[in-house]
Write a structure and sequence with these properties.
mainly beta; three-stranded antiparallel sheet; 0% helix; binds zinc ion
Length: 100
């Protein structure tokens, strides 16, 4: 099941919201086959940004969608020690978001 995560860094103020998981709402992704989407979080060192990328997409080739540099997958189960893409300090928090 897909889940939104809020990412925030208390050191530099970076924030982002990212979706992770394999089940998506038909509303947000009407043109994709629901079974084929699998969203993962990747970091681009070049842009100093985190992206959600559908790894089952035929367009995905481990490259940043913005600049084309190689991206690194972020394992969100590793609660401690996430490095902020902006300031490189290990103060990045990743917590599930509940949308009511
Ligand atoms: Zn930061
Ligand atoms: Zn990039």
């Amino acid at each position: 099941m897909a889940q939104w995560y809020k990412v925030s860094c208390e050191n530099c103020g970076y924030t982002n919201e990212l979706i992770l998981g394999s089940s998506v709402t038909a509303e947000s992704l009407k043109d994709l086959n629901e079974d084929s989407a699998d969203f993962k979080i990747f970091k681009c060192k070049n842009d100093r940004e985190l992206f959600t990328i559908d790894v089952h997409s035929s367009d995905f080739d481990n490259k940043c969608p913005v600049c084309g540099a190689a991206v690194t997958e972020i394992n969100i189960d590793k609660i401690d020690g996430h490095t902020c893409p902006r300031c490189d300090s290990k103060t990045l928090k990743i917590e599930p978001v509940v949308h009511m």
